[in-house]
Amino acid sequence: MFNRPPRIAGTDRTSSARPEIPDRRTLCWVPLVACLLFSLTAAAQDQETRIIPAPAATSLAGLGSQELLDQLGAQSWPAEVRFELLCSSPVLVLATSPLQPAEALQVWQIAHDARDRTGVVPIIVPDQAHVHWASLGTGLTQRWSEGQFGQAAAAIGEDGQGVFYAIEAGHREAEERAAREIELARAGNPSHPAWEQWVQRCDADPAVDCQGPSLDSLRTGLEQCPDELLVARPPESGFPGSFGFLQLAEFHRSQHPDLDRSLSFRVLLIGVEPHLIPLLLGFGGFNECPSPEEHSRAILTWEARYGIHLVFMGPDTLEFWVTRPPIEPAPVRELAWQQFMYCRDIVLQGAGSLPLLARELAGNSSWFFWWD
To answer: What SS3 class is residue 19?
Structure first.
C-alpha cells in the first residue's frame, strides 16, 4: 500500500488523487439516499431483457404475501415475512419487510433456489427507516424512457472482458495525469493548490511516495509471484457460511447493544437477469466505483467464467457467492488483476498487495468489493 494525495475537487472517478479512508470495520452504514434512493429509479421496456414474461409478472404481483411465499416454494421462511410491491410493470420489483441479517440471507437462499421457476432474482440491501420504499416504485418507470433500458441492456454483452481493459485504460490515463500534475507542481505551476501541498509533503517526508508504484510495476510483481504461493486450498463447496455484511452487522450491533434492531435488511425480488441489476438500479459512477454499465459487464463476464451470484448491494459495497472459483495460478493471477482494476481498494485498503489478493482469491467462494 502506498500513500496517495487527497482527492481534488472536480476530478473524475478514475483520478489517482484520493482521500485517506478509515478501516472498513469502523464504517457505519450510511443512508441509501446516495445509492438505492437514487438508483431504484429504473425500469425495463424491452421484453428480451426480462426473465419472466408479462403474465408471470402480473400473477406474482397480484399475490398476497402468503401466496407469494407458497409460489416461491418456501418451506421454512422467517416468521412474519411480508412483501411490498414496488413495481409490477414492466419490471417486477418486490421488497420484503425488514429482516435481521440471518433472516435476510435465509430468504435470499430460498428465493435464489426458486429463481428458475419464478423468474425473480433476489438481492439483499440495507434497510433504512427513513427510506420511503412504497414511493420508490414510481421512480422505476421514470428513470428510463421507453426502449432505453432495453437498448442499454442489449449492449452489455457485446464486449465481454473488454470492460476490464477499458477500466485499466482509465486508470492509466489517471496515472499519466497525476505524473503531469506532479511535474507542474514541482515547477511551481500546479493546476490546483492541493497538488503543490501534496508535493511539498512528499519532499518533506522521505517515507511518502508522491506517485506510488506504477501499474506496470504492480502487474510485473503479480506475474513474478511464485506459483507455490498461489496454490489454492480445496475449493469451498456449498453456500458460504458468512458474508461481510453479516460481520459488519454483528460489529455494529456490538457497538450499539441498546438498539434491538440496529441494523436490518430487506430482500428485493427483481425480474431482470442478475447481471443487469446494477444497470437497472443505477449503482456506481461515484469516486473510483465503475459505472452501472461497467458493473453489469463485469458481472456478466464473471458469471460465465466463475459462476458468481450477486448476494448483497450496499451504498458502496457488493458481495458475491462464487460457485466456480479459480484454483490454478494463471487464472488466479488474471482474476486478481481484473479485480484490482475493478476495485483498487480491495488491495490499497485491504489485502495490501496483488500477490496477497491472488492468494485470497484462490478457491474462495465469496468476493467482497468496497468503494469509498
So the answer is: coil
DSSP string, 177-191: HHHHHHHHHHTT--S
What are 54-86's pLDDT values in tens digits?
334 445 655 666 666 666 765 566 666 777 877
Q: Which runs of consecutive H residues, i.e. helices, occur in the chain?
A: 36-39, 54-61, 65-72, 101-113, 115-118, 133-140, 148-156, 162-186, 193-204, 215-223, 244-255, 277-281, 292-306, 329-342, 345-346, 354-361
Most confident range, picked from 47-51, 180-184, 298-302: 298-302
Cell triple for residue 86? 414496488
Alpha carbon distance 166, 278 (integer Å): 18
Buried b (16+ CB within 10 A) or exposed e, 241-274: eebbbbebbeebbeeeeeeeeebbbbbbbbbbbb
How far is it, in rounded angstroms, from Cα 161 to Cα 145? 28
What's the rounded Cα separation, in Å, for the pair 120 and 5?
44
Q: What pLDDT digit, counting tens, does each position of 233-277 carry?
A: 776 677 877 787 777 777 666 666 665 555 789 999 988 899 999
Question: In terms of C-beta density within 10 A (0-12 exposed, 13-18 middle, 19 or more buried), how is residue 136 classed?
Answer: buried
Q: What is the pTM of this model?
A: 0.77
SS (H, E, C) 60-99: HHCCCHHHHHHHHCCCCCCCCCCEEEEECCCCCEEEECCE
Parallel/antiparallel/unpaired status of strands 317-322 and 308-313:
antiparallel
Q: What is the distance in angstroms between the CA of the first residue and the CA of the last residue of the chain?
A: 16
Cell of 67: 401466496
Alpha-carbon Rg for the chain in angstroms? 22
